[in-house]
Specification:
CATH topology of the largest domain: Rossmann fold
Number of helices: 14
Number of strands: 15
Radius of gyration: 26 Å
Largest sheet: 9 strands, mixed
Strand content: 15-25%
Helix content: 25-40%
CATH architecture of the largest domain: 3-Layer(aba) Sandwich
Number of domains: 2
Length: 429
């Protein structure tokens, strides 16, 4: 039997108290935009889950799955068939799900959303299980069965499925605010950006390059990475900031060991100005403590003091292998390792400072016209809207939402979710 649609479950979103309706609306909107152009109807909130009906006899499920996997806030999702809340109908629907499939062990797991529904979960588990066994004799196994039939009984009917596909979890992008990520083109910064998306942040991206002193390769990588990151927020604005002239000025007056620290301080100043224009609340970097010379505690303190905004470092406690493995899971690793010329490799000193002192940094910067240098880079920067592959035009922006977003009593009642106790074949209902 062809699926009637897709059911989506969320986890952390459901714990957000009075702001839960707002979080759920964001999640539903994000999924709806992600499925643009596919034969699915509008995303509906149905008793603590999201329902996406299909209006095609043969919906492109694999494409839909690939897109939904990029939506943060999704705990799991499943292609489902629908049936009335009547025992014989549930038996036939369950049988149609397993028809033609081979398995040696199975179980039936049903769940009532409301306790006043006529069918008890334990009875459904037992009777549907017996019916399946009559047609496909197999051993009942409650732990790790080869085949598990899920039945979710809601007031309007039942959803049945066998596949529970993991989602990326986290919070819907957009619910916790907006940040600006410094995107180097390497392995770390795309992972940092994705980590912030997973915590509900919409992110703009800022890439510093040294063209024409170096090739455009890093800019092309940054564009490709921006398109990948746009999959989770539909649009990711990428700023391309020329940095080579600024570096050349630094080199002429700053002692070699301090060059990298000053490069980074100027980056944070410029990125901070862009972030403020974009109404971002923080900067994000891919720094990991002790990974390179500029990422010692002393240098981080010296560098961050130049930033007009807080600097978030979601990878601060990761080692390189952990970051590589996450980049591989995200799908950014192969792009990140393409050869390029990072701007920080231009005029790189042989022995960079690892414990920069405030007085030394201040003395070095006193020789520079900081405001002019930053303004010059800002005037010459370019911007680029990276769109998710399924987006043909930039979506209409929606208001930012935060933890203290007000939700009306009407919203709370409309989106109220009853408890969802899960019962098993030999448990109590």
């Amino acid at each position: 039997m062809k699926p009637a649609g897709i059911i989506v479950h969320y986890a952390e979103v459901a714990t957000k108290g009075k702001n839960r309706p707002t979080f759920i609306k964001h999640l539903a909107r994000n999924i709806g935009r992600t499925l643009a152009g596919l034969p699915f109807g509008g995303v509906q909130v149905v008793s603590g889950r999201l329902w996406i009906p299909s209006y095609s006899d043969d919906p492109p499920l694999e494409e839909a799955y690939a897109r939904i996997r990029s939506v943060y806030g999704v705990a799991s999702f499943s292609p489902v068939i629908c049936a009335p809340l009547e025992l014989n109908a549930l038996k036939e629907a369950a049988l149609s799900l397993v028809e033609g499939r081979t398995y040696e062990t199975f179980r039936v797991t049903s769940r009532r959303v409301f306790k006043n529904q006529p069918l008890a979960s334990l009875d459904v588990n037992r009777q549907v299980g017996e019916y399946l066994w009559e047609h496909h004799p197999a051993k009942v196994k409650l732990k790790d069965p080869e085949m598990e039939v899920f039945i979710e009984m809601l007031p309007e009917g039942a959803y049945l499925y066998t596949d529970k596909i993991p989602g990326p979890r986290g919070l819907p992008v957009g619910v916790t605010g907006k940040v600006a990520t410094l995107l180097s083109g390497g392995i770390d910064s795309p992972v940092a950006a994705a980590r912030m998306q997973r915590r509900g942040c919409n992110t703009i991206l800022i890439h510093f390059h040294s063209h024409p002193f170096l090739s455009r390769a890093s800019q092309e990588k940054a564009r490709d990475l921006a398109v990948h990151l746009a999959r989770s927020q539909q649009v990711a604005t990428l700023y391309l900031v020329p940095f080579g002239e600024l570096q050349r000025e630094i080199v002429t007056v700053v002692p070699p060991p301090l060059r990298v620290v000053l490069y980074r301080r100027f980056m944070l100043r410029i990125a901070g100005e862009i972030a403020l224009r974009e109404h971002c609340r923080a900067l994000v970097t891919g720094e990991s403590l002790g990974q390179v010379a500029s990422q010692t505690l002393s240098n981080m303190v010296a560098i961050e003091s130049a930033s007009p905004l807080p600097v978030l470092r979601p990878l601060i406690g990761f080692d390189k292998q952990e970051i590589i493995e996450e980049a591989q899971r995200l799908g950014t690793f192969e792009t990140s390792i393409l050869p390029d010329q990072d701007c920080c490799t231009l005029f790189i000193p042989r022995d960079p400072e690892t414990h920069a002192k405030h007085d030394a940094v201040a003395a070095a910067e006193a020789k520079l016209d900081i405001d002019r240098m930053c303004n010059d880079a800002l005037q010459r920067m370019e911007s680029f809207d990276a769109l998710a592959p399924w987006i043909t035009r930039r979506p209409r922006p929606v208001p930012e939402n935060t933890e203290d977003t007000e939700v009306t009593e009407k919203d709370r009642v409309k989106n109220q979710e009853p408890p969802e106790p899960e019962s098993h074949a030999h448990g109590e209902d």
